């Protein structure tokens, strides 16, 4: 029986990946630094803390990691505050899980202030008992620490907990650590064939999650 759900935010619950497409480039140019062409590819799987360290070490940005993160968050703040929306029917899906007694929390690379802002505005913050961020845990999603911390908080175990993610690297991390994983389709993730090979189920429409419903019947 499914008892716990660990949710990514951007690209999974929110239709928001486009907001991050050029944040690194915008930030570096604001510091008078021209980014290299492969910047977005390099930082795509990094947490904000990891990206900040990379900018300082590789590009020589003359700011502290905390100030750099604050600068990046400021670039997307208005989008989360006023524009970002849940994916269609995501609120309904969350309500159904909550009514079924599934305990849920957030595990995201975004900063907590952004998460609280957007989930409050979208009316679903109450669905989640806690918010875990890569910054607060001290590790990116190339390591399973954030999922382990979230599961510990929920009081569940790997046999009855599922991780919802949209990106290949995060799904791979959770799956390799023994979690059930549900991939949520997002057009910004190019590696759909690889995702299909490793996940337990895929959700392309929160209003009709047939594959997910079939999978959890066996938990």
TrEMBL record:
SUPFAM superfamilies: HAD-like (SSF56784)
InterPro entries attached to this UniProt entry: HAD-like_sf, HAD-SF_hydro_IA, HAD_2, HAD_sf, PGP-like_dom2
Superkingdom of origin: Bacteria
Signal peptide location: none
Name of this chain's protein: HAD family phosphatase
Originating species: Blautia acetigignens
């Amino acid at each position: 029986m499914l008892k716990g759900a660990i949710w990514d935010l951007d690209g999974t619950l929110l239709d928001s990946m486009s907001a991050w497409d050029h944040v690194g480039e915008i930030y570096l140019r604001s510091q008078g630094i021209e980014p290299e062409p492969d910047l977005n590819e390099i930082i795509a799987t990094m947490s904000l803390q990891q990206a900040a360290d990379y900018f300082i070490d590789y590009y020589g940005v003359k700011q502290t990691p905390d100030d750099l993160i604050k600068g990046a968050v400021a670039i997307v703040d208005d989008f989360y505050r006023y524009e970002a929306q849940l994916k269609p029917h995501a609120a309904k899906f969350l309500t159904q899980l909550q009514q079924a007694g599934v305990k849920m929390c957030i595990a995201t690379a975004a900063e907590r202030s952004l998460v609280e802002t957007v989930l409050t505005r979208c009316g679903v913050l109450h669905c989640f008992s806690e918010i875990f961020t890569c910054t607060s845990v001290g590790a990116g999603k190339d390591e399973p620490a954030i999922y382990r911390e979230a599961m510990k908080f929920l009081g569940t175990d790997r046999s009855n907990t599922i991780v919802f993610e949209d990106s290949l690297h995060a799904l791979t991390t959770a799956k390799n650590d023994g979690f059930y994983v549900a991939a949520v389709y997002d057009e910004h993730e190019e590696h759909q064939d690889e995702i299909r090979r490793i996940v337990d189920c895929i959700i392309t429409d929160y209003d009709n999650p047939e594959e997910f419903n079939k999978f959890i019947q066996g938990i």
